[in-house]
Write a structure and sequence with these properties.
- With about 270 residues, this protein is mostly helical.
- It has a two-stranded parallel sheet.
- Helix 5 crosses helix 6 and helix 5 packs antiparallel against helix 9.
- It is elongated.
- About 20% of the residues are buried.
- About 5% of the residues have low confidence.
Length: about 270
């Protein structure tokens, strides 16, 4: 069975980052464009690309590792060493080795999936918080800021600044991890960045954020028009009959608190 680990020159225990680095290094060295169109280099490059296609995907890598492990197990069973005999202790030893390595594969796959899930949640929660808070503020039009004392306004402004910085930081990380610019795979291999499969274009991501924000604002204002008289008359010190400038303060603050709660809960997992 072909060993993709040997092709990429990495250990079977290599992390995803190590596999990406090995692929980048070999791809830059073997790419036909930097080798005068050599057919031999092109074949080697194809092998490296195939190896990375499998090992770079956690699910495919787990399936490949299982097949590789089964192949090694059967080879060990068919060999001439003392461990390949049908002795009861030898069979138990082989089974223990197989189960231990298979469990390691599953544990690594679960750990990789958890890291990917947490990374995705760090983008999803702030985005959902931004949209939900925009919708809610547009509906109820709170006036907490304008009705606060000086110290309250100072706290609001401080939280707003921290919230904006935090929101932009989360969005920037998401853009770097999940969106691509105009470069193609060849460019990404030959530059100094790690190659990565990025599913969305930056234009699509920006469009989604802008359209989502505008849609939530529009729907919120539409709903709020039917409710503003009721809320404003019941609690005039809390709700405003119209959308004020302080509207911009609330979404980043809500995102900050939502993300803080999510990080707190995630720390116990």
């Amino acid at each position: 069975m072909v060993s993709f680990y040997e092709i990429l020159k990495v250990s079977p225990k290599a992390s995803n980052a190590e596999i990406k680095s090995a692929y980048r290094r070999l791809a830059r060295k073997l790419h036909p464009d930097v080798n005068g169109g050599s057919e031999e280099k092109a074949r080697d490059f194809a092998k490296v690309a195939k190896a990375y296609e499998v090992l770079g995907n956690p699910h495919e890598r787990a399936q490949y590792d299982k097949q590789l492990l089964e192949s090694q197990y059967h080879n060990l069973h068919d060999g001439n060493s003392v461990f390949s005999s049908e002795n009861l202790h030898a069979r138990k030893w082989r089974q223990m080795v197989y189960e231990k390595r298979y469990n390691d594969i599953i544990d690594r796959m679960i750990a990789d999936e958890r890291r990917e899930s947490l990374a995705l949640q760090k983008i999803i929660f702030p985005t959902v918080g931004l949209f939900a808070s925009t919708l809610t503020v547009a509906i109820f039009k709170p006036s907490f800021f304008s009705n606060s004392a000086i110290i309250g306004k100072i706290i609001f402004i401080a939280l707003f600044i921290v919230g904006v910085i935090h929101l932009f930081s989360r969005l920037r990380d998401g853009f770097e991890k999940y969106t691509r610019g105009g470069e193609n795979l060849h460019d990404s291999i030959l530059d100094d960045n790690e190659p990565a499969i990025k599913p969305y274009s930056r234009f699509a991501a920006v469009s989604f954020l802008v359209l989502g924000f505008c849609a939530c604002l529009g729907v919120g204002l539409f709903i709020g028009n039917y409710l503003e008289v009721y809320f404003a008359s019941k609690s005039p010190t809390i709700f405003s009959p119209g959308l004020k400038y302080e509207f911009i303060f609330y979404p980043p603050i809500v995102v900050l608190f939502v993300d803080a709660m999510h990080s707190f809960v995630a720390s116990f997992d």
